[in-house]
């Protein structure tokens, strides 16, 4: 169910690009100035601000009802976009969409991290994220089918409205049924006996100390945020998120304007790169858990993204450039769950994990702002500044990941030698470089 609702959230935040080339740009005159970019980036302002507060609420109220409320609320926002007549109203609804969607992703990572141990998380987080990418893969095709709907002689003959209306209704319904299917935190589930709940929390606490579930106060959460390593994880996730959002928002436009494909073909060709990304990412995540190393996999995926972006940028045949899109989509998408697992694996205390995931995804929202602005209409069809900004950030990602992992390896060695027995303040804990 987490996969389903997260898939809907990705669909609802990125379907604006499909609506853009289906007539939204002309009807709302989004091509004037920076209107489209503003409508994109405004989503991420409340999205960033509400991440940490939501993760402070979710464990107190319970995941099922809190997430169910958020899902229903943002579904209604998407439904409302199907009836707008001005770009200003669209922008307000995008801001509300960001507010309500903010709690889902960090909450889901928090839930997964509460059930699985250190070298069990990468493939679980990747499965959660990649399964939801099916919506991104088939989203453009589904959007194309919805854009063909025409009802009456008025505004409902505009296909882009039906993209928002149908997808908004689907999300709102999912929000209403979500409380019956979503998983809770181990200590709150009703299908486990008290002994089983103890086992579920203790098996995680073997590496993440403490079986008593504590709800950190605002002051305690702020103190946790002072850990400099969270800043590094957040920069890593900022790069991963900005790269993903830039491709998601502008991939149909790149295919349409940059590679010269028709509208219908641009929508259809948006899907195969995501299918490849899902399969390859799950394989790399399994490998990362198997060899119990994170940095070789994360850096390899970043390098593959760089190669793909260079192929898109500097080759001429559309088929070769399209192959580059496969590599770029895989490399950028795979490092989103990989980076989240990396940050969770270095966090010893259970109560800190929710703060870490929320902080990373909050900064990732700034990556969404970057991703929605680095590709400018005036730069088409080559999009040279946007491409090189993404390539440069991926280079930074590789350097940061390598540096942090070498630091963690050294700390583990010192702990093994008895010189640093309390990594992260927990005896016996070891980082996962």
TrEMBL record:
<keyword id="KW-0812">Transmembrane</keyword>
<keyword id="KW-0813">Transport</keyword>
<keyword id="KW-0472">Membrane</keyword>
<feature type="transmembrane region" description="Helical">
    <location>
        <begin position="35"/>
        <end position="53"/>
    </location>
</feature>
<dbReference type="GO" id="GO:0022857">
    <property type="term" value="F:transmembrane transporter activity"/>
</dbReference>
<feature type="transmembrane region" description="Helical">
    <location>
        <begin position="96"/>
        <end position="116"/>
    </location>
</feature>
<feature type="domain" description="Major facilitator superfamily (MFS) profile">
    <location>
        <begin position="1"/>
        <end position="413"/>
    </location>
</feature>
<feature type="transmembrane region" description="Helical">
    <location>
        <begin position="271"/>
        <end position="288"/>
    </location>
</feature>
<feature type="transmembrane region" description="Helical">
    <location>
        <begin position="354"/>
        <end position="375"/>
    </location>
</feature>
<dbReference type="GO" id="GO:0016020">
    <property type="term" value="C:membrane"/>
</dbReference>
<feature type="transmembrane region" description="Helical">
    <location>
        <begin position="387"/>
        <end position="404"/>
    </location>
</feature>
<protein>
    <submittedName>
        <fullName>Retrograde regulation protein 2</fullName>
    </submittedName>
</protein>
<dbReference type="Pfam" id="PF07690">
    <property type="entry name" value="MFS_1"/>
</dbReference>
<dbReference type="InterPro" id="IPR036259">
    <property type="entry name" value="MFS_trans_sf"/>
</dbReference>
<feature type="transmembrane region" description="Helical">
    <location>
        <begin position="320"/>
        <end position="342"/>
    </location>
</feature>
<feature type="transmembrane region" description="Helical">
    <location>
        <begin position="295"/>
        <end position="314"/>
    </location>
</feature>
<feature type="transmembrane region" description="Helical">
    <location>
        <begin position="128"/>
        <end position="149"/>
    </location>
</feature>
<keyword id="KW-1133">Transmembrane helix</keyword>
<feature type="transmembrane region" description="Helical">
    <location>
        <begin position="230"/>
        <end position="251"/>
    </location>
</feature>
<dbReference type="InterPro" id="IPR011701">
    <property type="entry name" value="MFS"/>
</dbReference>
<feature type="transmembrane region" description="Helical">
    <location>
        <begin position="161"/>
        <end position="183"/>
    </location>
</feature>
<feature type="transmembrane region" description="Helical">
    <location>
        <begin position="65"/>
        <end position="84"/>
    </location>
</feature>
<dbReference type="InterPro" id="IPR020846">
    <property type="entry name" value="MFS_dom"/>
</dbReference>
């Amino acid at each position: 169910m987490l996969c389903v609702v997260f898939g809907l959230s990705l669909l609802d935040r990125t379907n604006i690009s499909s609506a853009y080339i289906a007539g939204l740009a002309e009807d709302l005159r989004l091509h004037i100035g920076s209107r489209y970019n503003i409508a994109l980036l405004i989503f991420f302002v409340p999205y960033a601000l509400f991440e940490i507060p939501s993760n402070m609420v979710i464990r107190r109220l319970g995941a099922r009802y809190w997430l169910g409320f958020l899902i229903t609320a943002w579904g209604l926002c998407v439904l409302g976009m199907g009836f707008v007549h001005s770009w200003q109203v669209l922008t307000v609804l995008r801001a509300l969409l960001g507010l309500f969607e903010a709690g889902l992703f960090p909450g889901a990572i928090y839930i997964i991290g509460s059930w699985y141990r250190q070298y069990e998380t990468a493939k679980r987080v990747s499965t959660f994220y990649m399964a939801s990418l099916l919506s991104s893969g088939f989203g453009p095709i589904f959007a194309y089918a919805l854009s063909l709907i025409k009802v009456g002689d008025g505004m409902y003959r505009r296909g882009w409205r039906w993209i928002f209306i149908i997808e908004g209704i689907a999300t709102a319904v999912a929000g209403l049924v979500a409380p019956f299917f979503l998983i809770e935190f181990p200590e709150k589930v009703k299908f486990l006996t008290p002994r089983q709940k103890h086992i579920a929390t203790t098996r995680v606490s073997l590496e993440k100390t403490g079986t008593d579930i504590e709800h950190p106060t605002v002051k305690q959460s702020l103190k946790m945020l002072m850990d400099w390593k969270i800043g590094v994880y957040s920069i890593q996730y900022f790069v991963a998120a900005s790269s993903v959002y830039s491709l998601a928002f502008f991939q149909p436009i790149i295919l349409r304007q940059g590679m010269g494909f028709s509208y219908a073909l641009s929508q259809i060709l948006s899907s195969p790169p995501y299918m490849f990304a899902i399969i390859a990412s799950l394989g790399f995540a399994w490998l990362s858990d198997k060899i119990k190393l994170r940095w070789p996999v994360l850096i390899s995926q970043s390098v593959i993204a760089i190669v793909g972006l260079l192929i898109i940028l500097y080759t001429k045949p559309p088929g070769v450039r399209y192959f580059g899109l496969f590599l770029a989509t895989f490399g950028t998408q795979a490092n989103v769950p990989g980076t989240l697992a990396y940050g969770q694996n270095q966090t010893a205390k259970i109560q800190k994990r929710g703060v870490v995931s929320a902080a990373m995804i909050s900064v990732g929202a700034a990556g969404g702002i970057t991703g929605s602005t680095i590709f400018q209409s005036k730069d088409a069809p080559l999009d040279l500044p946007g491409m090189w900004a993404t390539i440069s950030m991926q280079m930074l990602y590789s350097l940061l990941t390598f540096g942090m992992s070498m630091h963690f390896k050294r700390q583990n060695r010192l702990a093994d030698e008895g010189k640093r027995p309390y990594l992260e303040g927990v005896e016996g804990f070891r980082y996962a470089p």
